[in-house]
Write a structure and sequence with these properties.
The protein is of the alpha/beta class. The chain has a single domain, classed as 2-Layer Sandwich (Nucleotidyltransferase, domain 5). Helices cover 49% and strands 15% of the residues. The termini are far apart. GO terms for molecular function: manganese ion binding; RNA binding; RNA-DNA hybrid ribonuclease activity. One of its GO terms (cellular component) is ribonuclease H2 complex.
């Protein structure tokens, strides 16, 4: 998990930020990104792709990363922004905001399969959250941050089951949208695709 970091440290760069986002595929809610700078050489044995970890383990590692990190930045792109510029650009914007929140400014970015629109040397790593400790740490921070936001959204919109599905297009979520309609936090451009798919299933 430190192979990418080691190659960059060997170039003399010490301040590496891992960057990742969560919520890109959701029907509901903001997209959230995190940027994490860990001390050179630090090994966090259990840090891995956040999707492979239980919620309890993610929370534990979130606290560990918060304690050990040199810096953590969080970036958010809200639903109106997602609707206006599309989800890919919104995810990239959230990543940029996360990096802008770092102090010190990193001298290298390891990014999960994306490019951050900033004049900082960087590498896009496919499946980076499973290959780089820095990106994995960012994926955990982003996931826990957004999951906590989902708990608040659950209070605001209790009939939709947000705390269970986190805004993804599960059967329960789609049924609740059909039953109760869309909220201001539903991504209307995403819901159009759900409607089209439902019509196609009825036709065929």
């Amino acid at each position: 998990m430190l192979e990418y970091e080691q190659s960059i440290w060997d170039q003399g760069k010490r301040c590496i930020a891992g960057v990742d986002e969560v919520g890109r595929g959701c029907l509901f809610g903001d997209v959230v990104a995190a940027a994490v700078i860990l001390p050179p050489g630090l090994v966090l044995e259990e840090v891995n792709d956040s999707k492979k970890l239980s919620p309890k383990k993610r929370e534990q590692l979130f606290e560990l990363i918060s304690d050990e990190a040199v810096a953590i930045g969080i970036g958010i792109a809200d639903v109106p922004t997602i609707e206006r510029i599309n989800i890919k650009q919104a995810a990239r914007l959230a990543m940029k905001r996360a990096v802008e929140g770092l102090e010190p400014v990193p001298d290298y970015l390891l990014v999960d399969a994306e490019k951050v629109d900033m004049p900082i040397e960087q590498m896009a790593v496919i499946h980076g959250d499973a290959l780089s400790q820095s990106i994995a740490a960012a994926s955990i921070v982003a996931k826990v941050t957004r999951d906590r936001m989902c708990l608040q959204w659950e209070l605001d919109y209790p009939e939709y089951g947000i705390a269970l599905h986190k805004g993804y297009a599960t059967k329960l979520h789609r049924e609740r949208i059909q039953q109760f309609g869309a909220t201001p936090l539903h991504r209307k451009t995403f819901l159009k695709n759900i409607v089209v798919e439902a019509v196609q299933q009825e036709l065929f």
